[in-house]
Specification:
Keywords: Signal. The protein has 132 residues and is of the alpha+beta class. The chain has one domain. The protein has three helices and eight strands. It has helices at 4-18, 21-28, 60-64, and strands at 39-44, 50-55, 69-77, 80-93, 96-101, 106-112, 117-122, 125-131. The protein has an eight-stranded antiparallel barrel.
């Protein structure tokens, strides 16, 4: 006699076998600027701290009208996430934004791979992440 989890696993396997293209379509959906995307990148600072970058929503409007896109910068210090800065960027063309942080440091980022990858340049370092 099958228990509930065995039945559930058979249903899941059967669904994948009957509709094999369903997971591929979901996994391959590219981010859309029409819907808007948010990007996240991470890495390590020169001091060895983990650093995270989060963009505000990027969409067709922000590109066409050159509306500001903010980048929030957080740093992990002693295991605690700490706000490290906020930057304002504007569209420069060729899927690239640039601007300055509140402290005056230049920051820029490029959207790559059909808007699924972000590459950020800040404080002489390059950080790569993903967009959704």
């Amino acid at each position: 006699m099958f228990n509930f989890f065995n039945k559930l696993s058979f249903v899941a396997i059967g669904t994948v076998l009957l509709f094999p293209s369903l997971p591929v379509q979901i996994a391959s959906a590219a981010p859309s600027l029409g819907d808007g995307i948010i990007c996240v990148a991470k890495g390590r600072t020169n001091q060895g701290h983990k650093i995270y970058f989060y963009t505000s929503v990027i969409d067709n409007n922000s590109m066409e009208k050159k509306q500001p896109v903010s980048v929030t910068i957080n740093e992990s210090i002693n295991g605690q996430m700490q706000p490290a800065g906020l930057a304002s960027t504007t569209y420069q063309g060729n899927d690239t934004y640039s601007g300055k942080s509140q402290a005056g440091s230049p920051i820029s980022f490029s959207l790559l791979g059909n808007y699924s990858v972000i590459q950020i340049q800040h404080s002489g370092q390059t950080f790569t992440g993903i967009c959704h």
